Amino acid sequence: MPTVRVDDLRTLGEAIFRAAGATPENAAGVTASLVGANLAGHDSHGVLRIPSCIEEIKQGGLKPAATPTVTHETPATAVVDGGATFGQLGARLTATLAAEKAKALGLGAATAFGCAHTGRIGEWAETGTQEGFITFAAAAGEHGPFQTVPFGGRERALGTNPFAWAIPHASGAPPILLDYATSAVARGKLLVARDAGKAVPEGWIIDRDGQPTTDVGDFFAGGALLPFAGHKGYAMSVIVEMLAAGLSGGQRTPPGEHDSCLFVACFAPSAFGPADDFAASVERIANRLAEQPPAVGFEMVLLPGEPETHSRREREHDGVPLADATWDAIMRVARELDVTHPAIA
Ligand code: NAD
């Protein structure tokens, strides 16, 4: 399993995307998000995606040099057309616009449609916290391909429909971050398990006959993901899709084209009362939880977002460990595109 320095991953990723037709800005924007996902510990949304992005560019579905545009705007809201380019670019514009609106009004929201895969959704919630806003982000597509069964169903009818909430820490510490799929796990984690040749835990997937299984191959052979926490994850998934795909007008994207949609909302604590009171409350709650004695088998109680922070600290320093299959696939596309780089010498 190679461990690759963060700078090498960045320059290699950018070089591959440029060689595949991306503008330098687009190449840098998408690579920053992919490497950022690896740093946060979510390898499922990191550089593992480079080969599939290149394949989509080859097939003509992903436009590497296109630019997302704003199609509708009010003082409080905006709608972005992702332009079928890298979904992280439309998502970044959407998150930035929601924060700009909140700066002016105390509340702001924006949606996007027509995006390719929007990556680690936590990144779009973290964007708002950089301006001091509580931020919600939700992502879904309307046309599929679907991966998840509804609670009580046995056929795929939902995406993995992730959502994130981020709360700023006034002390300058990284935000409190909730960020997960409404399926038992992100589909990308099944790709990671497949690359690593590992079984998945019980409760993640069913096979094509609707039977529980831990063989990740059963998912790719027509099985499906289960919603997290049964009816609770299923209900959240429905709301996420209605917010993201419904509000953005995602249904206007023709079937077969990139139809990932995003909804981002920012709330200024100061729009509700003294911002310092809110910050003090966040600190009190966080401290109470951090002081809890750990249960057997745990070292400590973590706050949501701390696993990402710890991973970032470690990987910035030590580099990013990648499965052999992931690294081999990246090297293969690099060679196909005549990209030379010291990391693949
Ligand atoms: P996950 O199950 O790894 O859960 C991650 C969340 O749980 C984070 O908020 C993390 O801080 C928190 N957490 C984990 N361990 C914790 C602990 N011990 N104590 C406290 N909090 C803890 O998430 P997932 O469902 O596998 O999703 C992984 C990533 O995939 C996310 O970044 C998500 O946005 C992304 N995703 C994206 C899409 C898309 O279409 N763009 C689809 C699905 C998932």
What does this structure look like?
By secondary structure, this protein is of the alpha+beta class. It has a domain at 1-65 and 305-345: Malate/L-lactate/L-sulpholactate dehydrogenase, four-helix barrel (Hypothetical Oxidoreductase Yiak, Chain: A, domain 1). It is 41% helix and 16% strand. It has 11 helices and 12 strands. The strands form 3 sheets. A 7-stranded mixed β-sheet has the order 2-3-4-11-5-6-7, sandwiched between helices. The protein has a 3-stranded antiparallel β-sheet with strand order 9-8-10. α4 links the parallel β3 and β4 (107-115). The protein starts with a strand and ends in a 9-residue tail after the last helix. Nicotinamide-adenine-dinucleotide binds next to β7, α6 and α10.
The count of β-strands is 12
Give average pLDDT, whole number.
95
The proportion of strand residues reads 15-25%
> Helix- and strand-based class?
alpha+beta
Helical amount:
40-55%
- Which sequence of strands runs across the widest sheet? 2-3-4-11-5-6-7
CATH class of the domain at 1-65 and 305-345: Mainly Alpha
Order of helices and strands: EHHHEEHEHEEEHEEHEHEHHEH
The span between the termini is: 16 Å
The shape, in one word, is globular
Total of helices:
11
Largest sheet: 7 strands, mixed
Question: What low-confidence regions span 5 or more consecutive residues with pLDDT below 50?
Answer: none
CATH superfamily placement of the domain at 1-65 and 305-345: Malate/L-lactate/L-sulpholactate dehydrogenase, four-helix barrel
**Rounded to an integer, what's the Rg over CA atoms?**
20 Å
CATH topology of the domain at 1-65 and 305-345: Hypothetical Oxidoreductase Yiak, Chain: A, domain 1
Which ligands accompany this protein?
nicotinamide-adenine-dinucleotide
Just name the CATH architecture of the domain at 1-65 and 305-345.
Orthogonal Bundle
